[in-house]
Amino acid sequence: MTSSKQVKLKPGDTIGILGGGQLGRMLALAAARLGLRAQVFSPDPDSPAFDVVQHATCAEYADVEALELFASDVDVITYEFENVPAATAMILEARRPVLPDTRVLATTQDRLAEKDFVTKLGIATARYVDVSSAESLTVAVAQIGRPAVLKTRRFGYDGKGQIMVREGDDLDTVWTDLETKSAILEAFVPFEREISVIAARSADGHVVCFDVTENEHRDHILKFSTAPARISAALAEQARGIATTIADALDYVGVLAVELFVVPGTEGPRLLVNEIAPRVHNSGHWTLDGASVSQFEQHIRAIAGWPLASPVRHGEVTMTNLIGDDIDSYGNWLTVPGATVHLYGKGAARPGRKMGHVTEVKSAPKSAK
Ligand code: AMP
Fold first, then answer.
1. Residue minimizing CA distance to atom 5 of ligand 1
2. Atom of ligand 1 at shortest distance to CA of 190?
3. Parallel, antiparallel, or unpaired: how do β-strands 128-131 and 37-42 relate?
């Protein structure tokens, strides 16, 4: 088998993408622009990524035969979501290089493993304690204090799988409500803002970060991203340094996102890592129209064994997510001067469902990076 480090695609080669959501769709479009083909594997027949590729595999992630055929059709495999089952990853990587290496999934699928990993690198996170029962939650609350946030170790996203623990809350009820056997309790972070770093790392260990992005959530779902974040150059450098350290430690190939809290302090603001996403990320969508190269293209370049680009930001960029019913306003957005509209081609606009996004570049370029 070709080692991941030896992947060197040529135009016309095919990238296999696990997952058929908007991220897979935008990865496939970025691949096409570079003359590469994409084949998408997803169990959902309504996958938005299917609309933009010629070859798709609609099968369950446990379907060994379908996975083997998919692997034989493609030259390298990547994924748009972090919850790729370990067995799926094993079947695929026995046949084709999978990038980023699926060992990163063991760390990033589990909040406890992820926080332990970040802490071992000497990088700060919110204080956290392992919780596996109502009794251990009581002990954890005594250590961490209230308010605190109880999060499932696995399968949490967009605020799902987390509960705030406030003064007076009954801990037995909180534990039962989370419906899990393994969780972590995190100290509530009184952050002044949330930021993220989108970093790309090539197989030869070169890391390129986009400008730090500032993120605003509504109901735990990303609503707005702005680049550059309103933080000092020194703090931005520190944030990029953290993302670089994490990417190097994971021997990562591709794009990853590191979400951070900016916490006010007497000696100036501090950074705490909240989460690592081993994939392209919603907070990097501004790069599609706001920079000379997008996060999607950087990812494709990295996994193709091609040189990473040095992105130049076109100005002050805002990204607005169209969530659920927001999609009804797409007609208005189409007429906003300077706005670039991206619609994902999804069916029902369920509450909380990401249906599209809009980028606006609001001023002249300020810096090259
Ligand atoms: P997560 O799923 O961990 O990324 O959390 C989703 C959002 O919940 C974050 O972007 C924050 O806005 C909020 N949040 C998560 N953890 C904490 C925390 N420890 N303190 C304060 N807010 C949090």
1. 159
2. 21
3. unpaired
Domain boundaries, the chain: 4-98, 127-187, 193-367
| Ligand 1 neighbour 217 (Cβ under 6 A) | yes
- Nearest Cα neighbor of 246 from 271, 268, 220, 264 is 271
pTM: 0.96
275 lines ligand 1 (CB under 6 A): yes
Atom of ligand 1 nearest to the CA of 259: 4
**167: burial class by Cβ within 10 Å (0-12, 13-18, 19+)?**
exposed
The architecture in CATH of the region 127-187 reads 2-Layer Sandwich (3.30)
For the domain covering 4-98, report its CATH number: 3.40.50.20
Query: How far is ligand 1, taken at its centre, from the CA of residue 151, in Å?
Result: 9
Neighbours of 317 (CB within 10 A): 24
* Cβ–ligand 1 contact at 189 (below 6 Å): yes
pLDDT digits (tens, 9 = 90+) for 73-107: 999 999 999 999 999 999 999 999 999 999 999 99
Separation of 79 CA from ligand 1 center, angstroms?
A: 24
Model confidence at 229: pLDDT above 60? yes
Dihedrals φ, ψ of 44, to 5°?
-95, 115
Q: What is the predicted pLDDT for the residue at 303?
A: 98
3-12, 128-137, 217-226, 342-351: segment of lowest average pLDDT: 3-12
Residue range 193-367 forms a domain whose CATH class is alpha beta
User: 260 C-alpha to center of ligand 1: Å?
Assistant: 10
Per the CB < 8 A criterion, the answer to whether 351 and 366 are in contact is no
